[in-house]
Amino acid sequence: MCRLCGRRLESTPGSDRRPTSWASEAISRSCPRPGTPCRTLRSSACLDNSHPADEPEFLRPGCFWSAAQVRPDRPGPLAVAGYDPRAPHRPGVPDRREPRAPAVTLGPGSTASAQAVRLREFSAVGSPGGARVPSEGFVTSITHQSENFPEWYNDVVLKAELADYSPVRGCMIIRPYGYAIWESMQGELDRHIKATGHSNVYFPLFVPRSLLEKEAEHVEGFNPQVAWVTHAGGKALDEWLAIRPTSEAIIADSVKDWIQSYRDLPLLMNIWNNVVRWELRTRLFLRTTEFLWQEAHTFHATREEAEAEVATGLDCYDRVSEEWLAIPVIKGRKTDGEKFPGAEFTWCIEAMMRDKKALQAGTSHMLGQNFARAAGIEFLDRDNVRKNPYGTSWGFSTRMVGATVMAHGDDSGLVLPPNVAPVQVVIVPIFRTDEERAAVAGAIDRLQGALAETPEGKAVRVKVDWRDESPGFKYNHWELRGVPFRLEIGPRDVAAGQAIVVKRVDRSKEAVPLDRLAAELPARLGAYQAELLARARDFRDSNTHQVDTYQQLKDGLDGEGGFFLAPWCGNAKCEKQVNDETGATIRCIPFDSPDESGKCTVCGGSSERRVLFARAY
RNA sequence: CGGGGCGUGGCGCAGCCUGGUAGCGCACCUGAAUGGGGUUCAGGAGGCCGAGCGUUCGAAUCGCUCCGCCCCGACCA
């Protein structure tokens, strides 16, 4: 019922596609006054001209969002993302919203569930209400990894304040602490990209439909995931605008006038932006409807040069991943079934998370002449022949924040590599009286002064936690946030001229003289960074297995899990069978897997090398 | 889309059967003590009980309709 005019709002059949909760409400609550364009909204008012003053701000004519979300020319307003008007309607597509993690309270947890965990822990050590055994783990309201890894992940991302859910389904809000982590890896990758000769540029958010549809395989691959703007300025657009799912199409079109001669090549560009891909199933950072990333786009005169560029891109990712995020990766080539729509081939890096599942950490695509040809880009080569340039594109996204969480975290929360940690060292002062406080503060001031003038000039990101909370509370607070080192400085330490240095990753404690601490911290952070990488590499290697029969592969996947290197004949049918029957996919054909003749794990046909099978995110 | 369940302060829940204008824990604010692994005590602020319509003197509670969410299945990847 329209709350303004009282007309009944009727349900519209076929409203099973639900891009957002409120848009779906709009769809199913259209107000069918005959002959009157009617825009009905979540407020359950029918917003026709008779009561325009009540229109929500964001629905007034001229407002972009009103245009994007509502179609006045249809009884059921349909600006439906992922909706291909040419496709037959498919009923029965379910609403697959990722379940929200049970929201949680921060801080000293005593929510019901936290208490349940606490009770469980007490009973686990056999002394309900008795003294806690420190090594038995902390009282915490984070789900244990071994209990339910996805829930652990959600708990950590929310409680460490990396991100939050948004009012729009599938989208996320990146909070300051999470954004700082993103900025760190973004900065590092940007340095690599520039060092390899690329320039940052910007292209529009909107892609005219005709451009997106020029490359046939590309359209087909992306169409189901594209969000369309159908209205703007209060009226229907003659040509729909896609909200970019990626920018190949618009870039290829835009640069065609820039490239006339081989002298204009190579053209090496990079964009930092957001893209939208309508996902049915989303997870914070790992797969969101809108995400932030970098996409490099290059054009070259020769195939060889373009192929070298694909390697350059992958190399940037490999280095950022290993050197900055301490995540070891396996480089390889995607199978044809997994490659980018419109590419000739796709290279990738794959990483192992602590639940032994794989995560695609970055991809680099050889576009060949596909997009150039579709967009009509031609240049005159040395030999005075007009040719289409060869293109590449490569992308690295906020998903890597999730990868960092899942590659290093433990039951106490995040474990961050120092390079990306927004806070590398947290100092927790301990005192009772004002005199003690003053003494501790003095020691901390001197330490901070010394840190500011480290010989290497390398600033250490230090935070002193003076909040009026108990020390134990602060320990847990910063452990949850993955801070690599904690310094405890109390009266006893000031007297002894030392600080207690606690490593987050193994919680080891060590007394270090205050006068050496500042000089040593950078090296300790460096060692910590290396230790995390080594730890992750050990974990991955010890969970990577060679298997030769399908039975072994299935047993392995269902058993302890991990990565499985197995022979494959190259046939897509075998690939699909494994996926259908085990849920695993071929993550890549690793570059470092040696030539080795064998029999395909699935069909027994001849295989030239082993490929990497795993269940993946 | 089929079957089941659930919507009550920020979060987790009780109250509903047997209508009388809302309560608990955590989080939040204030004060004091405490402070070397999630510290106590005291005081305080915060809720049109998912929405609409009905029944009634009176609805969180009863009835109808709608909306949203979760689980299982099917579908998709």
What does this structure look like?
Helices cover 32% and strands 21% of the residues. It folds into four domains: 1-80, no CATH class; 176-204 and 245-408, Bira Bifunctional Protein, Domain 2 (BirA Bifunctional Protein, domain 2), CATH 3.30.930; 425-529, 3-Layer(aba) Sandwich (Rossmann fold); 544-614, C-terminal domain of ProRS (Translation Initiation Factor IF3), CATH 3.30.110. The strands form six sheets. An eleven-stranded mixed sheet has the order 3-7-8-14-11-10-9-22-25-21-20. The chain has a five-stranded mixed sheet with strand order 16-15-17-18-19, with helices on both faces. A three-stranded antiparallel sheet has the order 4-6-5. 41% of the residues are buried. Helix 12 packs across helix 15. It binds one RNA strand of 77 nucleotides through residues 1, 3, 9, 11, 16, 21, 24-25, 28-29, 42, 44, 90-94, 96-97, 99-100, 102-115, 132, 134, 138-140, 279-281, 428, 430-432, 468-477, 479, 488, 490-493, 500, 579.
